[in-house]
User: Which sequence fits this backbone?
């Protein structure tokens, strides 16, 4: 790749750039973003070569454009870049939801939509910003592509190869399959973590409670340190699937509530044992 243009040079976009550099498969990386300070930091850290100024010129001759912004910003970005995309320029993204991003692509990319290959790298962290970017963030991690009907086999293969150069293991889902899966195993856990910490934050004795919180609390709430803006957008974008998962979880909590209220030790042990066994099998994979 002679040139890659990245919108959003934080954890996801910055790590993508560093990984391509480490693999020695990119000539130049140009960065765009809302914060001049972050862009300057990204340049000083060697993530990007240049801070983008002329959007039209930069995306016109780029080999690949990565949209690594919160999903709520992608529709506007697509509308801005669509008139200027070169015929050979491909676009991918790092959004954690896909049905909404695909819909935004159809609505805003027009006759360039075939050049957009949606993706989701499963390699986030609670830290954000250019300083959090790591060249090895994607090594051994999953990336899910959700190709659209208009994508050519060559375009899909090109974007797949780019993520593989970063060290990722690439899979393919439909956008709907992706959103249903990640509502259960990613979006719901983040929602619950934020909710628990928010509950404690509203209590008068929160400082006392936190002073006695140990590793269990730390592990469960680690992801509540993630970007509120990003997770606000994710929750709203995947609202339907997330509401279904939240409803199922509330039913589970009601079952546990009843068992606890009735002193049903057998039921509690049954629930805890099944959960422990499944998690044990998962961690051994």
Assistant:
């Amino acid at each position: 790749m002679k040139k890659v243009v990245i919108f959003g040079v934080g954890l996801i976009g910055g790590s993508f750039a560093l990984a391509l550099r480490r693999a020695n498969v990119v000539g130049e990386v140009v960065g765009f973003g809302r914060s001049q300070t972050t862009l300057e930091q990204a340049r000083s850290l060697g993530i990007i070569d240049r801070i983008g100024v002329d959007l039209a010129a930069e995306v016109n001759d780029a080999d690949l454009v990565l949209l690594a912004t919160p999903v709520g910003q992608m529709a506007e970005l697509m509308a801005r870049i669509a008139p200027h995309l070169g015929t050979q320029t491909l676009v991918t993204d790092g959004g954690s939801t896909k049905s909404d991003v695909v819909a935004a692509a159809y609505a805003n990319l027009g006759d360039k939509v075939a050049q957009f290959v949606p993706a989701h790298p499963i390699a986030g962290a609670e830290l954000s910003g250019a300083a959090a970017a790591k060249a090895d963030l994607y090594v051994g991690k999953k990336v899910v592509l959700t190709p659209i009907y208009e994508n050519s086999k060559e375009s899909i293969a090109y974007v797949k190869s780019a993520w593989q150069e970063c060290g990722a293991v690439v899979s393919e889902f439909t956008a709907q399959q992706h959103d249903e899966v990640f509502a259960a195993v990613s979006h719901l856990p983040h929602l619950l973590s934020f909710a628990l910490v928010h509950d404690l934050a509203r209590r008068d004795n929160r400082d006392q409670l936190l002073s006695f919180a140990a590793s269990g609390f730390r592990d469960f709430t680690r992801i509540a340190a993630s970007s509120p803006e990003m997770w606000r957008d994710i929750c709203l974008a995947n609202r339907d699937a997330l509401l279904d998962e939240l409803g199922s979880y509330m039913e589970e909590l009601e079952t546990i509530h009843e068992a606890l209220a009735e002193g049903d030790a057998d039921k509690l042990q049954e629930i805890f044992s099944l959960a422990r066994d499944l998690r044990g099998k998962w961690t051994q994979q």
